[in-house]
Amino acid sequence: MIDQLVSNIKKTNAPIVVGLDPNIDYVPSYILDQAIKNQGETLEAAGAAIWEYNKGIIDACYDLIPAVKPQVAMYEQFGLPGLEAFKKTVDYCKEKGLVVIGDVKRGDIGSTSTAYAKGHLGGVTIGNTKCYGFNEDFVTVNPYLGTDGVKPFVDVCKEENKGIFVLVKTSNPSSGEFQDQKVEGKPLYEMVGAYVDKWGADVVGTSGYSAVGAVVGATYPEMGKVLRKIMPKAYILVPGYGAQGGTADGLKPYFNEDGLGAIVNSSRGIICAYKQDKYASFGEKNYADASRQAVIDMREDINSIF
Amino acid sequence: MIDQLVSNIKKTNAPIVVGLDPNIDYVPSYILDQAIKNQGETLEAAGAAIWEYNKGIIDACYDLIPAVKPQVAMYEQFGLPGLEAFKKTVDYCKEKGLVVIGDVKRGDIGSTSTAYAKGHLGGVTIGNTKCYGFNEDFVTVNPYLGTDGVKPFVDVCKEENKGIFVLVKTSNPSSGEFQDQKVEGKPLYEMVGAYVDKWGADVVGTSGYSAVGAVVGATYPEMGKVLRKIMPKAYILVPGYGAQGGTADGLKPYFNEDGLGAIVNSSRGIICAYKQDKYASFGEKNYADASRQAVIDMREDINSIF
User: Fold this and answer.
1) What three-state secondary structure class fits A124?
2) Per-residue DSSP letter, A132
3) pLDDT tens digit sequence for A181-230
4) What's the gap in Å between the CA of A20 and the closest CA on chain B?
């Protein structure tokens, strides 16, 4: 699947991923109002609205981008109807040829991590039939529990040709509280980075990249530079561009010289483009066209660094 | 809610929580076979089977215990039908007066952590109506992202009178890879413990305990002793008793002198008791009675330390 991601990135010439994080406030009011008219002020209405909203954006952008990253929390907040919308979104994006990175940040131990890995990347066997739960292509994984927590995901990746991105250095202001603490003279995130390199060593694809990638926030380019060297085979998923303050120029260290090795996420900046002054002329009804234009602009911005 | 938990523990004289982690291999074959007969070899059948299995255990044990801890991964592996079973389990346990600790180990940043908190502890507003997703009483939270990741949960806890348990030192063998690393001369988990104390400082209930508790594995009693002192107001949720090797004697340091301050989880040891030699005489059909006996035995074992 890492090879598929690399191939999609080359094809689109766009090392970007659209974060499908449908906050209810982002959904155009005409969509939400109609859903409430149909189903009342219910979780079901919210689920229907965010699915319609997503579908519009996917239809408008799928030919320009290699991948999407739905943030499951934004669906989980609406309970079961929200997760139904998540599943529909995952399935639809895969139909459209997009690589789907489930931003689930799961992580537990042993058989519990295996259960998460099966639910999101692999399948379970019921009687003699293999059944698939959410079936994303990649998921994000939290490393705090160590190898016991991550290894079950890697095992399922091997069996199913899937991949993971392990949180190494996140983009938020307080990420340093624990991640930057000095351990044997070096910050903890460097140690986690070294583990990522180790965990991914025997799942390297023909692209030269590993099924075990890393999350490193765009807001810390100096750290990105160091981590790029510590994890030479890891694809780096970079959140924090745009809305969180990361700039295109700061992204250089995350990439290798061939323009590969990193994929930059933008959520709000794309899916909520119609609410920005810059794209306001599209109007609410054409929110998806505004997203398409924002993707084109982001691609240009990112590619300007090469 | 922490006060409710303490009150339930006093009432039952049982500082124990039953982990409702329905691995499909635990479900008695007559239940699974019937579900497959009704719905085929599908996720729906698995969901129906684990719900029936859980219901049996809850009905047999609810009067003896203060709380349950469903592990969401075990439901999530069955996709949407699994999560439907999770929701039914949460609702039914609450009906029975049990405190429900959703073992979800979520953790993200800012608005994303807020979304998780709303989905599991609070609610979302659709139009003018507040709707609840999963609505557990407590959830477990991963601290790797720092205060930005935990604070949104605490905010929702305040509004909704709910609680969290933050992962401090987990019970698994490799937990030390990052958690035990020395930071300024002390292990990282002690630093996380100090944050737990800080995060919980202004949500202390009338019981004297905070809505912000901690997860500390039963497998590390020496560390439990230190952490008990660092986080005097935190209730400690203790996994790893029984199947993972933690003993009743080793649990002493986690408790305060009044016998409060900790709640010990057992999953497999209770819900899969009928598969142990000790309880084999119950037979598969009476799996729930075997669980009841295992709860009684565990209560006696834990209370022997006081």
Assistant:
1) strand
2) E
3) 999 999 999 999 999 999 999 999 999 999 999 999 998 999 999 999 99
4) 12
Candidates B112, B147, B189, partner chain A, best to mutate (most A CBs within 10 A): B112
Q: Select the residue from B144, B168, B190 to test the A interface by mutation, using most A Cβ atoms within 10 A.
A: B144
Sorted by sequence, the CB contacts under 8 Å of residue B25 that are 6+ apart come out as none
The complex's ipTM?
0.96
Q: Which tokens is A141 given? A: 């994984």
For residues B6 and B163, the answer to whether their CB atoms sit within 8 Å is no
| Two tokens, residue A32 | 């939400």
Q: B-chain residues within 8 Å CB-CB of A246? A: none
Burial of A6 (C-beta count, 10 Å sphere; 0-12/13-18/19+): buried
A132 interaction partners in chain B (CB closer than 8 Å): 79
Catalytic residue, chosen from B10, B55, B94, B105, is: B105
- How does DSSP assign B9-40, residue by residue? HHHHT--EEE-----GGGS-HHHHHHHHHHH-
Would the pLDDT of A168 be above 80? yes
Measured CA to CA, the distance from residue A78 to residue A84 in angstroms comes to: 10
Q: What residues of B are in contact with residue A126 (Cβ under 8 Å)?
A: 24, 36, 41-43, 45-46
Q: Are A270 and A40 in contact (CB under 8 A)?
A: no
Do the Cβ atoms of A81 and A47 come closer than 8 Å?
yes
**Is the CB of B181 less than 8 angstroms away from the CB of A192?**
no
Percent of chain A with pLDDT over 90: 92
Average pLDDT over residues B170-190: 93
Residues shown for chain A: 306
**Which residue's entry shows tokens 């991550």?**
A150
Q: Each residue of B6-22: pLDDT tens digit?
A: 999 999 999 999 999 99
- How near does any CA of chain B get to the CA of A132, in Å? 7
Q: Which residue has the tokens 């990420």?
A: A175
B105 is catalytic: yes
> CB of A237 within 8 A of CB of A2?
no
Average pLDDT over residues B269-283: 97
pTM above 0.90, yes or no: yes
CB atoms within 10 A of CB A125: 12
Helix pair angle (A29-39, A43-61), 10° resolution? 140
- Give me the count of residues in chain B: 306
Q: Which tokens in the block code for residue A226?
A: 């160091």
Query: Looking at the DSSP assignment, which residues form a beta bridge with residue B138?
Result: B101, B163
CA A102 to CA A77: how far, in whole Å? 15
Which residues on A lie below 8 Å from B73 (Cβ)? 106, 108, 112-113, 115-116, 119
